[in-house]
Amino acid sequence: MPSSRREFVVGMGLAATGLATRGLYAQKASVSTSCPFRLAVINDEISPDFDHACDVAANEFGLHWIELRSMWGKTVTSLDAAQIDESKRILAKYNLKVTDIASPLFKSDWPGAPISQHSPSFKKPREVDPHEQDALLLKCIETAKAFGTDRIRCFDFWRLEDPKPYRAAINAKLSEASETCAKHGMILLLENEMACNTGSGEEAVETLAGVPNKNFMLNWDPGNAATFPGNVPYPDAYNKIPKHRIGHCHCKDTVRAADGKASWAPVGGGIIDWTGQFKAFVKDGYHYGVSLETHWHGAATPEESTRISMKGLKETLVKAGITC
Prior knowledge:
The chain has 324 residues and is an alpha/beta fold. The protein has helices at 3-16, 18-25, 50-60, 81-93, 132-146, 164-183, 201-210, 222-225, 233-237, 274-283, 302-319; strands spanning 38-41, 65-68, 70-71, 74-75, 97-105, 151-154, 187-191, 216-220, 246-251, 253-256, 262-265, 289-292. It has an eight-stranded parallel beta sheet with strand order 1-12-9-8-7-6-5-2. It has a two-stranded antiparallel sheet with strand order 3-4. The relative contact order is 0.14.
């Protein structure tokens, strides 16, 4: 069976379990208070309606934590004061705490470098404002404080074909941003993102070495790392990462077609050894966020896809011997 057909059949089968999965969570599932992680979900992977997303996260998934990225069609750093107040009211309503602000900080062009093929400016060129991201950083800090979290997710600029001539300056910028965050008691989390200059686990090791600030940590994303051909996020890449520098984790899965092209999958349905990764987290004393970033949309709706992937995540935790 061709890989595309196989993935379609698998997706249809998983989607067909959606109603059963929904029924399972409708029984008011709960996350154990002994869970070693801050088990969470990124809110807009469920719905742009923030109240509904929090309802599903708390009452169906049984979570006590949630990661904020966008709501009501606006990024979390674009919310006005009234929307922040409303968001906080909703969080309190569902007794949810915020793991981090999943901001778009530094997901931008590096000034003076060739425009990246991953950049929106690649097709519609615009002049890069070198101060735009500085203003966004201050907004991130203000927003994180408002939501009671000390963690801000960032990137390290759109991926360049040859980042070497700019790497030292990029690291200096990340260090400067970390120093600004430190003044406000904030931790800056760099996500390894395949469209940015730190994509794989191995690249993350190099960036962490180049930016030694204690409050500069990794948002470890094995799913993103797995999109690089031949990359094995766990155990290969993970074993190289300094464990005390991991401050957050995004959880999703990846499959690879015969031509080597990667695509998303529900957690537990791809090539990533999440069972081994979770066991290693416990062994290494990791206790920060493990946040579902579904990305896979094989079910009827993003909400149903997230519901299926959360079920897979929890089943994987059970396989790892972890009570959550």
